[in-house]
Design goal:
Glutaredoxin, about 10% strand, 5-stranded mixed β-sheet, 8 helices, about 55% helix, alpha+beta, 2 domains, globular
Length: about 270
């Protein structure tokens, strides 16, 4: 599985729809006089693709394809849609690092997303060691909980933990991804998630009571993150904004270090 893949259900559904449409088209088998006409039309279409294809293809760079295809890596060139970390809401959001770090990374994730798990377990620890722990980077965690009710529940628990014990948030988050199960396979049910809360030394009853009391507030915060991401063209996880660069997918570490170093250089750090 490529490290550049990301989670985008809309692309997957669109791909399946196209395949079904193609199968229906092939099942309609014109005969007689229509067959030569179809061959001629096909030849004209191919000729047009050869002539105009290269010019048309350039307009699609930076868009995510169907599931299983590699998304365009947008940190190296112009982003598909203009983003700026200065326009991202960070106040009140869960974060790690120095509040005054010269570089801020906004990171949209879903707790059930396997590519978020890949980033969190394989890439994030090095970023933390080299940049967060040295005071150069602050990482702000944004919700894009779109993979079903279990993802929503995980998002609510995260908000409750942040509101009552911010110092425990990242420990819980790390445990979540270290023990991630199959998407919508039951591992992220509310009962199991509250057990995880206990496993990291938090009071599960307190967290559950906070969710009961403040669910509408926490859900509004989760929805706001999703809407904010959508306004910048973010519809899949994991997605990141670093400076004016949009990075989509569990990209290699070098992609992130280049983007961070560029911002540190701009800040004179």
């Amino acid at each position: 599985m490529s490290t550049q893949e990301h989670h985008n259900h809309e692309g997957h559904e669109h791909h399946e729809h196209e395949e079904r449409h193609e199968r229906r088209s092939r099942s309609q088998n014109p005969s007689g006089v229509w067959m030569p006409v179809s061959i001629i039309v096909a030849a004209l279409v191919i000729a047009a693709a050869v002539i105009f294809g290269p010019r048309l293809a350039g307009g699609n760079q930076g868009t995510a394809g169907a599931a299983g295809q590699q998304p365009q890596q947008q940190a190296a060139g112009q982003p598909a849609q203009q983003v700026n970390i200065n326009n991202v809401k960070t106040a009140g959001e869960p974060f790690i690092g120095s509040p005054n770090a010269p570089v801020t990374i906004a990171y949209w994730s879903d707790f059930q997303c396997p590519f978020c798990d890949q980033f969190e377990t394989q890439t994030l620890p090095t970023i933390i060691k080299n940049y967060v722990d040295t005071g150069k980077v602050k990482i702000v965690f944004k919700d894009l909980q779109f993979l079903g009710p279990d993802s929503q529940t995980a998002g609510l628990i995260g908000r409750a933990i942040w509101s009552t014990d911010p110092s425990a948030y990242f420990k819980w988050r790390t445990y979540m991804f270290d023990h991630q199960g199959q998407e919508n396979g039951g591992w992220a049910s509310k009962q199991n998630l509250l057990s995880i809360v206990s496993d990291v030394g938090l009071n599960a009853n307190q967290i559950n009571n906070l969710i009961t009391k403040n669910q509408s507030t926490y859900q509004a915060e989760i929805d706001a993150d999703k809407q904010e991401g959508a306004s910048m063209g973010i519809d899949s996880t994991p997605s990141f904004v670093i400076g004016t660069q949009l990075i989509v997918g569990a990209q290699p570490l070098s992609v992130f270090t280049q983007a961070i170093d560029n911002q540190l250089q701009t800040a004179g750090k």
